[in-house]
Amino acid sequence: MRKIILLLLTVTLFTANMYAQKKKKGQKDTIPQQETLSKSREQYENTAKFIDAVKERINGNFTQAELLLLEVIAKEPTHDPAYYEFAKIHIEKRRYSDAIEALKTALQLCDTIIWYKILLAETYDMTDQHELSEKVWSEIVKAEPRNAEYLFEYTLSLLYQEKYKEAISQLDKMEVINGINEDMIRLKKTIWLSLNKVDNAAKEIEKLAEASFYGVNYYLEIVDMYFVNEMPDKAIPYLKKAEKIDPNHPKINIFLYNYYTANKKYEEAFQYLKKAFAVPELNIDEKIKILMGYYVSSDKEDSVKAYQLLDNLLTVHAQNPIAWSIYADFLTRDNRLAEAKIAYEKVISFDESKYPIWQRYLALLLELEKWDEADVQSNKAIALFPAHAFPYLVRGIIFSVKKDYTYTVSILEEGQKYAIEEDDVMQINIFLAEAYAHLKEFEKSDKCYETLIKKYPKEPSVLNDYSYSLSERDYRIEYALQLAKKTVELSPNTAIYEDTYAWALFKNKDYQNARLWLEKALTHGGNKDYDILLHYSIVLETLGEISLSKEYKDKAEQLKQISVDRVQP
Fold this sequence. Notes:
By secondary structure, the chain is mainly α. It has helices at 2-26, 33-58, 62-75, 80-92, 96-109, 114-126, 130-143, 148-160, 164-178, 182-194, 198-211, 216-228, 232-245, 250-262, 266-277, 284-295, 300-316, 321-333, 337-350, 355-367, 371-384, 390-401, 405-416, 422-438, 442-455, 460-472, 477-490, 495-507, 511-523, 530-542, 546-567. 34% of the residues are buried.
């Protein structure tokens, strides 16, 4: 740089000398030659000093740079670049007010250099003086109307002052210069939305959609805007445009489903929903959320639709255990238990690590009275989930049905260690009490029941089972009668509870009332229960109705044989 300046100085001196020589020949000098040479050397030295100051600033030696610049200004007060450099040092040291004053001085000395204005505008922005910044950027933009960078900075100064419409105007100018730019379009969208001009925001995104080879997502963005702002009718034209491009796009079909549902056009809505379910792109979790609405519905037509959706779900998510799980839940709800069993087995074949699935599956096996399968599967569940109580309970129930009460007690006592859920605690203790009673360990049995009654004083099944156990033993008959009476009050019209009450009355030698309550039990489904039929036969025999007693005893024996057949492999 010094070589370039020295060369320029030499040329200047040579030119000045030639000029002086010409003057000697033809004219009288107005400035002595020696004075001109001296002044030129001073300018050279001052320029060199200025360059050194710039170097020191660039190297971070701000104090040294300041001293050199002060010397430059002292010798040449009109040296506007020195004030510009001084402003940069002030900014580095966060002396923004001093920087602004230095830049103002530089511009007073020379207002045609755009860099001075740019730095001044930037400094105003740094200090949140956006009104002043706007004025300077406006001057810059007038000087450089095709410079998109300056236009953007000008736009920001307007945005800081919430002059949104003016900002939009400048962004439009930038779009003319640079063409469509997604970042600028999105900025305009945000501004229009802040002004509640949804249509204008939509038009901006529409530009991106039309400029794109695959504009579906942009159209859907517009649709989303209109739905969020509760203007669904305006979304439809854009949905239709998107549908033409990609008719199987799940989001398009979900939007149309929601729109037609809101307008109570349920058939049209459902057709779009089926299309959404028929493609894997719609997340299965979203599909499950929709299906849950059908799950809680009691409408028969909804049930038919639910199975159509489930068919599509299983077609596209055939290897996903979640799909089979929700299918099994629907089948269970609709009492299609044999099919539900197969569906749960499908779930387990894909993923056997989910305990809630095993819990529902084992409960289903009990409901279906698949004792041998329940035996095998509950044993497997215990191996997989040894710290969960329900599989132990299932095994206890299985072996109670098989009348292996010793093993029943053993497995239930083990399961009792892990019983946390209220229902598990209650059921394990009920079956334990019953098993103890069968093993003649009545003290343990009664202790279980008393513990349960303290904890669940209004639980009919607990009161009923304890009452029946006492009645069977002819032990504390009056207390058994109280328990049974409370049970039928808590849960009226329940055959097994009415049977227990009748049996307690019978044990108290109140045969007529025993008969009345057994007849109630028969009308509430007890005619398909072995114990109720047998009890009714016994009461009739006691009352001297031998022929009728025999008839009911035969019915009981027929049911007993069916029950035995079910338990046998």
